[in-house]
Design goal:
single chain, mainly alpha, Amino acid/polyamine transporter I, globular
Length: about 450
């Protein structure tokens, strides 16, 4: 059987971790967050808390990445900690909810920023979004080295765009803001509830650093490089996000941030008339690049599931020339198009995605405790810094976030839970089939 090719270096893995995080979030969610938290201090606190959560998660997952340097990443960690069922549930949810939903949202974000340059109605935005999905699908069908080059180039472009926004905002911005302005006033009347709603957008923006683990089967020196990529990636992204939000606050009042559909372009346009168009191009490239990264990384989960006999056999098929799991890639992109046409809006898609994703984040972090007890025989090239406090912080915040999302956004949360429950008979079908053939 043809195997995946180990082509990914540390730099490429860090670019996967950074590029997976910095996609559409920092360019679209600040308006939603400012709508929930109309004070500069609260906005910066939300983004700072997101960075703390991300770093504690990366430090925790890094131990698992060093222990299990195989394709599939989090799927493998859950399977080793809790058994086949939890690994399958994660892979299933990643296909039908998390990555396909994220790709649908990213493609819409890309189309929104192109609409800053060209007049596009809602139908036009959806057509452009579908075309973006089709293009990155075909790029990722070619060998992983091509996808790595694509990732490095587009992540570089997005960092240039963000650096431009930060530089213009911090050095030339002229909005005088009071850090404590309206710090006790929120649209919901309850600061904890408003903070919980704001965290949906924040955690969507920070999500993605774990994607480096998905491609471990194609990484060189995976035991060392996968943990490094997740930790370095989360630190860099946190710094970038805090500086970018400061730049926005220097360029636009909070009420204008809250009402903006294309915050980065609108912010830069306040100083440079043509700058908004340039930033819009860079951000469209950025979201397109992240779309490509997700199309590269997540199908390796379905590939790993299929190899384990827990999913459709065809998804483990690797093209003999390109050495990529093309049916796994096609399955994900096809479902992303369906979600794009069904949910339709960016905010609906990210709520649906983030709630479900963070359930499994919490379970994976708890897996560190389980595996330290259950698999004492395994070598641990890296051990979680600050254990057990660091993973406990991540698990606690994750639990509170999921509970809040279930209360304030029940429709999207229950949609995600429904798709988890639907997968149970599918799992037992594949499990029974594996017993018969194995």
């Amino acid at each position: 059987m043809v195997e995946l090719k180990k082509d990914l270096r540390l730099y490429g893995l860090i670019m996967v971790a950074i590029g997976s995080c910095i996609g559409s979030g920092i360019f679209l969610t600040p308006s939603q967050i400012a709508g929930h938290l109309p004070a500069p201090l609260l906005i910066l606190m939300a983004w700072g808390l997101g960075g703390v959560i991300t770093l504690t998660g990366a430090l925790t997952f890094a131990e698992l990445g060093a222990m299990f340097p195989q394709a599939g990443g989090v799927y493998v960690y859950l399977k080793e900690a809790y058994g086949d069922l939890f690994g399958f549930l994660y892979g299933w949810v990643y296909l039908v909810v998390i990555t396909s939903g994220a790709n649908a949202a990213l493609s819409i974000a890309c189309a929104y920023y192109l609409a800053f340059l060209f007049p596009l109605n809602e139908t036009g935005i959806k057509i452009v979004a579908v075309l973006a999905l089709v293009i990155v699908t075909f790029i990722n069908i070619f060998r992983v080295r091509v996808a790595e080059v694509f990732t490095n180039i587009f992540t570089g472009f997005k960092l240039v765009g963000i650096a431009a926004v930060i530089g213009i905002g911090l050095f030339f911005g002229n909005v005088k803001f009071n850090l404590f302005e309206s710090a006790t006033k929120t649209e919901t009347g309850s600061l904890p509830a408003a903070f919980g709603l704001a965290l949906i957008g924040v955690l969507w923006s920070y999500g993605g650093w774990q994607h480096a683990s998905f491609v471990a089967g194609e990484a060189r020196d995976a035991r060392r490089n996968i943990p490094r990529a997740m930790i370095f990636g989360s630190i860099i992204v946190t710094a970038v996000y805090l500086l970018t939000n400061l730049a926005y606050l220097f360029l636009l009042p909070v009420d204008q941030i809250a009402s903006s559909q294309s915050i980065a372009a609108d912010a830069v346009s306040t100083l440079i008339p043509f700058g908004g168009a340039l930033i819009a191009v860079l951000i469209a490239i950025s979201t397109f690049g992240t779309l490509g990264i997700y199309t590269l990384s997540a199908p390796r989960i379905y590939y790993a599931m299929s190899k384990d006999g827990l999913f459709f056999k065809k998804l483990a098929w690797v093209h003999p020339k390109f050495r990529t799991p093309i049916y796994a890639i096609l399955a994900q992109s096809t479902w992303a198009v369906v979600l794009l046409l069904f949910w339709g809006t960016f905010e609906d898609l990210i709520t649906y995605v983030v709630f479900t994703d963070w359930i499994f984040f919490g379970l994976t972090a708890a897996g560190v405790f389980v595996l330290r007890h259950k698999r004492k025989d395994l070598a641990r090239p890296y051990k979680t810094f600050g254990y057990p406090v660091v993973p406990l912080i991540f698990i606690t915040i994750t639990f509170l976030f999921v509970l809040n999302a279930l209360i304030v956004k029940p429709l999207h949360a229950w949609a995600g839970l429904f798709l988890i429950f639907v997968s149970l008979p599918i799992y037992y079908y594949f499990k029974r089939k594996k017993r018969k053939t194995g």
